[in-house]
């Protein structure tokens, strides 16, 4: 577990409001999804990122609208942080026609090209070569955008990680590989699945910079990603960032969490990225408690609205089953 | 002694008893040890046989299948679990380019006695990549055997035969009926031979060929048609998809003069086409109607909102029976 450190703050008040609001949106969205799964209103499977709000929100906060991301199976936070509408996201999870994938893709396949979100991905590591290709396009056509590739610790052991990072390195592509190390690939602990202390240590093998950061410190996330994005935009190639974090919930809805202790979970809950950001904002005098509470309530209302929108949206028409397989 | 077990329990028992009997048998896969597998098929086996024989791997499907080949070539009997069938794709190279061809490539010097167990099929409200039914990929690959049980008795007996087979076997476990019902399973180790279909219901008017989760749907449709119309359909569980039990297929069609294939896989180039071709070759002059296919559609398996329409239903099968008999 990394030390609890807090970076220096250089945020405006508006930026602070935006970041805190986004973090709450991510948390409330996933808590709501959790509740609806438990009540049997959403089906299938889903992967929640409660506890990982700082990585999604912090990393996307330093991107420009033109920049792109690839996301993962645990992608609700990434999607919201890159500007997705929680209404259409919730509708997708409810399997409604108004969802991002017309109600036929679900939790793991939300994509939003208008906002530069190249898609969540049901296959672990699936987004890594895809991000590399998106960055290659940017370079070949001189489009100026940077690609931020989210993936988890589990993905770092897939072959696609090796192939994607090597290509990005030899071609000096404008991509940032952002590993959210939440300590477990389903039940597989990083302690057992890696023989190295830090996943970012692998950067050396690809000849690119690596950084290990506290993923529950949103300011540190922003600082590090900003440096990597600038490097990418300047044509110096990729960076591998590893953000140590933790998912509070199980891997998916059917996880009894036999592989970790309740004490460990409590220790990480004490490092709540939202509570830490609040404390920092208060300490720096940027926002007062009343304002922050109102931001929280506003985010909660937006998620309630998203649920209402999803529930009142129609199911896809039966005929649509054959749509969109080909152009 | 027999007990009523689910398919899942029968699979666990087959693994357990075979591991007890033959120390060369070992299991490897993602989340199979501590967690006992996503569907709990390997639950309890870590405690019983230890971490050397029940191995949690990183997320590395190519590595899992490739390691299994290396084990099999050197006298071990690996049973690899791929968490969901569609997760096998990064490992296809090892399976198709190596496991399947090793015996042929070495002109019979090396065999690869490995089993790949994997949950497959739709109907559990899983998103697309958790619901695939691409058995035809494997049946199309010379060197692989493809087995699909439809009931607890066969699940145990076929898995034991798969573990004793000298060649690589892809053992597909229909998730939809993992826990759907119980049936008598003898406690001692027994075998159901590979390559033998089973007549589940006798009839004279039409032969229905099915496997996995579709078998019960076909059976129900056949029962209803007898009650409603007095038509007696023969229902045959193919159980092994490669090698196909050609004699069972041909002799049934010679008896009934009509045939139907039911599979949840996509229609185009699905196994139904192969079975129809076989009937054309061997029983054309016995046919009184074109052979009917009731299948999934040529689309990725959609989300829960329209999933039930994707899968062959009793009503679609009944309509197909009527069209064939009244042709």
Tell me what the structure shows.
The complex is a heterodimer of chains A (327) and B (327). The longest helix of chain A has 26 residues, at 13-38. Chain A has one domain (13-314): Thiamin diphosphate (ThDP)-binding fold, Pyr/PP domains (Rossmann fold, 3-Layer(aba) Sandwich), CATH 3.40.50.970. Chain A starts with 12 loop residues before the first helix and ends in a 15-residue tail after the last helix. Chain A is 43% helix and 9% strand. Chain A has twelve helices and seven strands. Chain A has 327 residues and is α/β, with parallel strands linked by helices. By secondary structure, chain B is of the alpha/beta class. Chain B folds into two domains: 2-186, Thiamin diphosphate (ThDP)-binding fold, Pyr/PP domains (Rossmann fold), CATH 3.40.50.970; 198-325, Rossmann fold (3-Layer(aba) Sandwich). Helices cover 37% and strands 19% of the residues of chain B. A seven-stranded mixed sheet of chain B has the order 3-2-4-5-7-6-12, with helices on both faces. Chain B has a five-stranded mixed sheet with strand order 9-11-10-13-14, sandwiched between helices. Chain B has a two-stranded antiparallel ribbon with strand order 1-8. The longest helix of chain B has 16 residues, at 214-229. The mean pLDDT of chain B is 96. At the A-B interface, loops of A face helix 3 and helix 11 of B.
Distance between the termini of chain B: 48 Å
CATH class value of the largest domain in chain B: Alpha Beta
Percentage of residues in strands of chain A: 5-15%
Class by helix and strand content of chain A? alpha/beta
Could you name the ranges of chain A where pLDDT drops below 50 across 5 or more consecutive residues?
1-6
Total number of domains of chain A: 1
- What about the largest sheet of chain A? 5 strands, parallel
Mean pLDDT of chain B: 96
Largest sheet of chain B: 7 strands, mixed
Sum up the overall morphology of chain A in one term: globular
* Spatial strand sequence of the major β-sheet of chain A: 1-2-3-7-6
Query: How many distinct beta strands of chain B?
Result: 14
């Amino acid at each position: 577990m990394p030390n609890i450190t807090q970076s220096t703050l250089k945020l405006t008040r508006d930026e602070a409001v935006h970041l805190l609001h986004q973090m709450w949106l991510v948390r409330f969205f996933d808590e709501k999804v959790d509740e609806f799964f438990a009540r049997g209103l959403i089906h299938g499977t889903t992967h929640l990122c409660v506890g990982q709000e700082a990585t999604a929100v912090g990393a996307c906060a330093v991107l420009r609208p033109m920049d792109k991301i690839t996301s993962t199976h645990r992608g609700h936070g990434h999607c919201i942080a890159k500007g997705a509408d929680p209404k259409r996201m919730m509708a997708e999870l409810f399997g409604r026609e108004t969802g991002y994938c017309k109600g036929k893709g679900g939790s793991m396949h939300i994509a939003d090209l208008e906002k530069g979100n190249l898609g969540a991905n049901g296959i672990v590591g699936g987004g890594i070569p895809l991000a590399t290709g998106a960055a290659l396009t940017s370079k070949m056509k001189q489009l100026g955008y940077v690609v931020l590739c989210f993936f988890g610790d589990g993905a770092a052991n897939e072959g696609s990680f090796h192939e994607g990072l090597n290509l990005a390195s030899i071609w000096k592509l404008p991509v940032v590989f952002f590993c959210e190390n939440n300590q477990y690939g389903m039940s597989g602990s990083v302690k057992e699945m890696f023989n190295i202390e830090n996943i970012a240590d692998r950067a050396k093998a690809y000849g690119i910079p690596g950084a290990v950061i506290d993923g529950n410190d949103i300011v540190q996330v922003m600082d590090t990603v900003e440096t990597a994005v600038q490097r990418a935009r300047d044509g110096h190639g990729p960076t591998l960032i590893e953000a140590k974090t933790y998912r509070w919930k199980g891997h998916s809805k059917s996880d009894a969490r036999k592989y970790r202790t309740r004490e460990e979970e409590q220790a990480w809950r004490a490092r709540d990225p939202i509570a830490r950001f609040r404390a920092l904002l208060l300490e720096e005098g940027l926002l007062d408690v009343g304002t922050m509470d109102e931001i929280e309530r506003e985010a909660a209302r937006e998620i309630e609205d998203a649920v209402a929108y999803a529930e009142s949206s129609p199911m896809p028409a039966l005929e649509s089953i054959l749509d969109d397989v080909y152009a | 002694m027999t007990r009523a077990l689910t398919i899942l329990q029968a699979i666990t028992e087959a693994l357990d008893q075979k591991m007890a009997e033959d120390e060369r048998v070992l299991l490897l896969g993602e989340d199979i040890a501590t967690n006992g597998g996503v569907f709990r098929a390997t639950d309890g086996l870590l405690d019983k046989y230890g971490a050397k024989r029940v191995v949690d791997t990183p997320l590395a499907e190519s590595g899992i299948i490739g390691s299994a080949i290396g084990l099999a070539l050197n006298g071990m009997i690996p049973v690899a679990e791929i968490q969901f069938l569609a997760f096998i794709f990064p490992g296809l190279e090892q399976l198709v380019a190596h496991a399947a061809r090793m015996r042929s490539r070495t002109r019979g010097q090396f065999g690869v006695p490995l089993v790949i167990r994997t949950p497959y099929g739709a109907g559990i409200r899983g998103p697309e990549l958790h619901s695939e039914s691409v058995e035809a990929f494997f049946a199309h690959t010379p060197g692989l055997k493809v087995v699909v049980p439809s009931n607890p008795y066969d699940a145990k007996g076929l898995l034991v035969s798969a573990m004793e087979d000298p060649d690589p076997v892809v053992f597909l476990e229909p998730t939809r009926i993992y826990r759907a019902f119980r049936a008598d399973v003898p406690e001692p180790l027994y075998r159901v031979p590979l390559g033998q279909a089973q007549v589940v219901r006798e009839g004279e008017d039409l032969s229905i060929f099915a496997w996995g989760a579709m078998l019960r749907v076909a059976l129900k449709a056949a029962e209803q048609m007898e009650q409603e119309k007095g038509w007696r359909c023969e229902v045959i569980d193919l159980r092994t998809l490669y090698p196909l039990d050609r004699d069972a297929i041909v002799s049934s069609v010679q008896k009934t003069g009509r045939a139907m294939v039911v599979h949840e896989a996509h229609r185009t180039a699905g196994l139904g086409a192969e079975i129809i071709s076989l009937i054309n070759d061997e029983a054309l002059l016995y046919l009184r109607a074109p052979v009917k296919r009731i299948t999934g559609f040529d689309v990725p398996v959609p989300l829960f909102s329209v999933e039930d329409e994707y899968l062959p239903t009793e009503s679609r099968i009944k309509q197909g029976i009527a069209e064939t008999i009244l042709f």
